[in-house]
Design goal:
By secondary structure, the chain is an alpha/beta fold. It contains 18 helices and 16 strands. Strands 1, 2, 3, 6, 13, 14 and 15 form a seven-stranded mixed β-sheet that branches. A four-stranded mixed β-sheet has the order 8-11-7-12. Strands 9-10-16 form a three-stranded mixed β-sheet, covered by helices on one side.
Length: 546
């Protein structure tokens, strides 16, 4: 397979079932660089804490899913349907939000990025072509006919929230009907606790057979030798059938550690009414333009221009806009303090310094950002598709018509880039039920199941064939699909949870005026070099190497 990540180095940890020693690990931060704060339909990030890992483990029945029918929520909710030729295209190509017009832009590589970090050439497909692509077979997906029925029992840790869980219950029940010999123990695990609990379970030999894992966890788990290689199994994802940024997150060297289930990215959300009152006719294309827009809104209305989140994951669009990241793994260089990174963080800090954005609170910045935008007290924010259902429950965005969605703005060099988020289904190393687990992963990530999840929950599929006319007809999904064309693969970070927690602390200080971008990032880089990344060099502002 092309475009694989390099194998991740790390301290070996016991495989599932080997001994009872809890594996040594990097501390997991509160946010941990996680891409999801709110899932569709959840009102706050705290909703994820309602699950109970130790609760009753009953087999799900088909049931009726309350679901979230995004398709009926406003004809003009996303910039991806109306006027996208005026949004988010820093190169000025004039592409529209219709995915059928994105092919030329995605055909090349982004300047300044290696092949693994490049915007995928296959991330967007013509709608007419998508309609003609055959859906992957229901059931075992790519597994093909089985010589003998497979039997066994597997445990599936599901990190979806309570709004999404009923739909996944239906899929689990459908899998069991197709494979009556396989018993699935479907366990809901709170998302923000799942990585920690999984590492605990590995140490006690009680890890689940299948885990729904955030894409940012994979590198850490691969480094600990905790995941099964799916190469040559029914669960192995065929790269040509998936969005490149999604499949990139499971490829390490010559091994495949999971199958992408859903994807997401950050986008610019804006209040169209506030834009109209300020005389603004389209979303901003650059961060500098975003600042000017924010000041215009503040002068023309009683609202803030833009509200910011202090979490490190939300700093990535500012870094990617300058074609940089936290580290360069190929060069073994910490780049967070380099010229490009300082320019990116400075763009964020300038939004506050100029008055275009208020200083974010020291704690609970996400809730403050989401709440202000939801109440119509701010014209713009950067957020993901998981926030949409909560917005549509508010009077400000009730019919969807007032919500604009566009790709994140670009940096000084004209590049726009947003991190690729989402979830993969991974199989624990050493599972005694490997074949059953592989068939389950294959079924759950097949195109038919992904289309169902997209239609009922509004989540973005990872398989190209799942982008049917019905999926793309919804303006919110269409807008985020277009925003995803500006997404870049996540850099593998075995110590990612700790690094994003550290970045959040410094980024918060920068946005609140406690330190400068250059000083804050330089201190952070030296801290990482002295501990987490002592085999890396540091690129600093004013020096070469960034």
């Amino acid at each position: 397979m092309a475009n694989r990540q390099q194998p991740v180095e790390g301290t070996a940890r016991p495989r599932t079932g080997e001994g009872s020693r809890r594996p040594e690990r990097v501390p997991v931060g509160t946010a941990g660089g996680c891409c999801k704060y709110l899932q569709a339909g959840s009102g706050s990030g705290k909703d994820r804490d309602r699950g109970d890992l130790q609760g009753p483990r009953t087999r799900p029945g088909p049931g009726d899913a309350p679901g979230h029918d995004a398709a009926g929520r406003g004809e003009d909710a996303g910039g991806g349907v109306n006027g996208m030729n005026d949004t988010g295209d820093p190169e000025g190509s004039g592409d529209t939000g219709n995915p059928g017009n994105t092919g030329d832009r995605l055909g090349g590589r982004r300047p300044g990025r290696d092949s693994r970090r490049a915007v995928p050439a296959g991330a967007a497909l013509l709608v007419t072509v998508l309609a003609l692509l055959p859906l992957a077979a229901c059931g075992a997906g790519d597994s093909g006919p089985e010589a003998e029925p497979v039997s066994g029992s597997i445990t599936f840790w599901d990190t979806s929230n309570e709004t999404e869980a009923p739909v996944f219950n239906q899929l689990v029940a459908a899998f069991q009907r197709e494979h009556p010999g396989i018993d699935v123990d479907h366990v809901s695990v709170p998302f923000f606790e799942a990585e920690e609990r999984y590492l605990d379970a590995v140490g006690t030999g009680s890890a689940p057979d299948v885990l729904r894992a955030d894409v940012g966890w994979t590198a850490h788990m691969v480094a600990g030798d905790l995941l099964a290689d799916l190469t040559g199994t029914p669960a192995e994802p065929a790269p040509e059938e998936f969005l490149e940024t999604a499949v990139d997150s499971v490829l390490f060297g010559d091994a495949v550690y999971g199958a992408p289930q859903v994807t997401d990215t950050l986008a610019l959300m804006y209040n169209k009414d506030l834009f109209d009152r300020a005389g603004l006719t389209r979303p901003p294309r650059y961060w500098s333009e975003t600042q000017a827009y924010g000041l215009t809104v503040a002068e023309a209305t009683d609202a803030e221009g833009i509200v910011l989140n202090t979490d490190g994951y939300f700093a990535l669009p500012f870094l990617h806009g300058e074609d940089t990241d936290l580290i360069d793994p190929d060069a073994r260089t910490i780049t967070i303090a380099g010229d490009a990174a300082v320019r990116g963080i400075s763009a964020a800090a300038s939004l506050v310094e100029s008055g275009a954005a208020p200083a974010p609170p020291e704690k609970d910045a996400y809730e403050a950002m989401q709440g202000a935008f939801k109440r119509g007290e701010a014209a713009m924010m950067i957020n993901g598709p998981w926030a949409v259902a909560d917005l549509l429950d508010s009077p400000v965005f009730a019919d969807g018509a007032n919500l604009g969605i566009a790709p994140v703005p670009a940096g000084t060099g004209g590049s726009a880039g947003s991190p690729t988020g989402g979830h993969n289904l991974v199989v624990s190393a050493g599972t005694p039920n490997a074949t059953a687990a592989q068939l389950f992963v294959s079924f759950m990530t097949a195109a038919e199941q992904q289309e169902k999840v997209a239609l009922e929950l509004g989540l973005l599929p990872t398989r190209k064939a799942a982008y049917t006319d019905a999926v793309l007809a919804d303006p919110v999904r269409n807008a985020f699909y277009f925003a995803h064309t500006k997404a870049v693969p996540r850099t593998p970070l075995p110590a990612g949870s700790r690094m994003f927690a550290d970045l959040q602390e410094v980024y918060t200080d920068v946005l609140r005026g406690g330190t400068t971008p250059a000083d804050g990032m330089a201190d952070l880089a030296l801290d990482w070099q002295g501990g987490l990344l002592n085999d890396h060099t540091v690129a600093t502002a004013g020096a070469s190497g960034d």
